[in-house]
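Supplementary Methods, section 5.1.

A reviewer requested that the exact input to the structure prediction be made available. We therefore reproduce it here, unchanged from the version used in the analyses.
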Amino acid sequence: MQKIQSSYLVDLLSTITARPRLGGRPSDRRSLRELCDLLLTDLGDVQSSQVSRALLAKYSDLTAEEKLAFFEMLARDFDIDAPQLADLATQYAAEKSADTLAKVIACAEPRRQELLRRLNRVSGATADLVAMRLELLAAMRDAPELEVIDFDYLHLFRSWFNQGFLVLRRISWDTPASILEKIIAYEAVHAINSWEELRRRLLPEDRRCYAYFHPAMPDEPLIFVEVALTEGIAGNIQDVLAEDRPALSPEKIDTAVFYSISNCQKGLRGISFGNSLIKQVVEDLKTALPGLTTFVTLSPIPGFRCWAERQLAELPEGAADTAPLARAMAAAEDGEAGAEALRGYVARYLIEEKHPRGGPLDPVARFHLGNGALVHEINLGADLSANGLRQSCGAMVNYLYDPAQIDRNIEGHSASGSVAHTRALASLLKSHAAKTKN
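The structure derived from this sequence is encoded token-by-token as follows.
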């Protein structure tokens, strides 16, 4: 979609006035632009709330094209005054006065940030603005110039959704059904296909689920984690989710396995919740179950297969079909002999392959390693679902959170990009390199 011309945008937005609203009162007769300008004036609390509600209601009635026009208007007409900011910055450099600095700071903030703040004052507006940002992200695919607006949403959301405002709640079989339905819908790692399947993940005493909520969105989970309490480290998801699995008695439990972490609100993309969620859940579990000694994940490797296929595509024509990597991938999927060679390739991918912007190439590895975990074990045949085979030829990985090493791992990862891993995996990498150097 080509960028809409400014004059057309103005005309389009100025004509968006009253539209019949089914089941409610008629919408405000003023245009979106008029409501935006009015909201930024010195209104009383009651009138400000009325204008905010009218603006949000009018926005919700817009077509996709009209929403694009609205975002274009925010980018153009509610931006910073760059020439004025430059003049004030020059003045401050010469004067170093507090009064001028205050003017620089005020001028450096786009007017649309204050507009979003005022919209957020009414009940329910936070969820509306999160949904609005999701539509902005969709619009940015065809109009990347709208990214300037996304900076404002991110700036505000990082403040509104900081850890101090988040509420950790355990999700149990007694949690209201409306929230349980959302857990089913938002599960992003291992699909929940029925209420009975959800019951098996929540009801036994050796299973836990925790979610973060925000007071302004009390019925909307932001992120949740599912935990299996086990004896020893789980090496495959089939056993963790088995229908006929007997519940483990508390005295045998020594390990907490984080096997699924799902972000629920796509409109909050770029806001990190996972790090604090894991830390808080670990503390909760340690308090409830003093016998726990080991905290690990059983994680997918979502980028491995794509990386492996790129490696094969770079081989000379005809060589890919007989390459050791291709044979190992096929053997892993079929459960045949020869699959063990795949572990070396997975180790290389997780530990040695880097993203162009730094850190491990794999997104899940970036998250856990950046939070101080180490690569503990690679498990073949660990996820034989269609999704597991498609992503990683069925392989999964355990990341270990060792409290004694977390700070050191974070420091090494931040300073040099090093990936903490076990001696066994170091030996595997060395052997793999020797076998594949030619």
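The first strand starts at residue 167 and ends at 170. These observations are discussed further in the main text.
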